[in-house]
UniProtKB/TrEMBL annotation:
Keywords: Membrane, Transmembrane, Transmembrane helix, Transport
Predominant location category: membrane
Compartments where found: Membrane
Annotated TM spans: 38-62, 74-94, 106-132, 139-156, 171-192, 204-229, 249-274, 281-299, 305-323
Organism: Arabidopsis arenosa
Protein name per its UniProtKB record: Probable purine permease
GO molecular function annotations of the record: purine nucleobase transmembrane transporter activity; purine nucleoside transmembrane transporter activity
Similarity comment: family membership: Belongs to the purine permeases (TC 2.A.7.14) family.
Amino acid sequence: MMMNMKTVLVIINCIFLAIGNCGGPLMMRLYFQNGGERIWFSSFLQTVGCPLILFPLLFSFLRRRRRLEEQENTSFFLMKLPLFMASIVAGLLMGFDNYLYSYGLAYIPVSTASLIISAQLGFTALFAFFMVKQKFTPFTINAVVLLTVGAVVLALNSDSDKLANETHKEYVVGFIMTVGAALLYAFILPLVELSYKKSRQRITYTLALEFQMVLCFVATCFCLVGMLVAGDFKVIAKEARDFKLGESLYYVVVVFTAIIWQAFFVGAIGLIFCASSLVSGIMISALLPVTVILAVICFQEKFQAGKGVALSLSLWGSVSYFYGQMKYEEKTKAQETQLSQLPVTDSET
């Protein structure tokens, strides 16, 4: 039996998400490990691939125009002003979040950074409770506690987790920056959801792609200003010549870093619309041990007992959160079914 189009899209977006979620941090570590030192430039690379989103948007536009041939004017962009302004605000926050993450990854191992970033799941639930009135269940509280304890275990394990030729101060600052990146991203996710709810537009996959493109473009401009202030453009050519893997491979790393990070964004959005945000979150959490293992294999990063405990707590917290969400959704659907089966009274007709 042939798979339907929705199933094919889910599989494609899962592949995109897996490539971006695992490959993005590894490419950035490759950059820093082989002589790359520009924090703002590496932040810039996380969203500069946003023009790639124009291809699916163009495809969507051509489909709409064929479907509405009798109408003379078919708008290329569907986004209205309120949602456009919201995407600009989210983009500025994302640009700063990219900087925090790049700064952290310059001074801590990929495996450690991935474990810290996993804590954002619990804090996303916390922010969503206040911003979009998401229900807070005992499973959510359990997840927040476990993910926070996991980050604390990593902090206590800092002395044996430093990179080569790195001071304790650099490690601590990198650790704090990565925690800040996780917290800020945890705030951005419900902010985007709130923007959708307040937009008064029907949110389609095309509209979500438009939002993502504007967000990434603004974040890229934010980092571009940082690059100009830091003088990155003056030293990129020299950094490429001094790159340990060679000048040509420097530009290969740069280009593929941008493409791989964009695959993450497109895959995450695609899964939310083809399946659900729950499936997207499960996929990201399921890839956590893969990223950690790849970092240990590719860069010979240390994997001490403390990091193993943190990984276990992170996975436990993620499973707890998603199990609670599944139970809550099952309960909500059951209540909706019961309400739909209630008899309609004369006064309601």
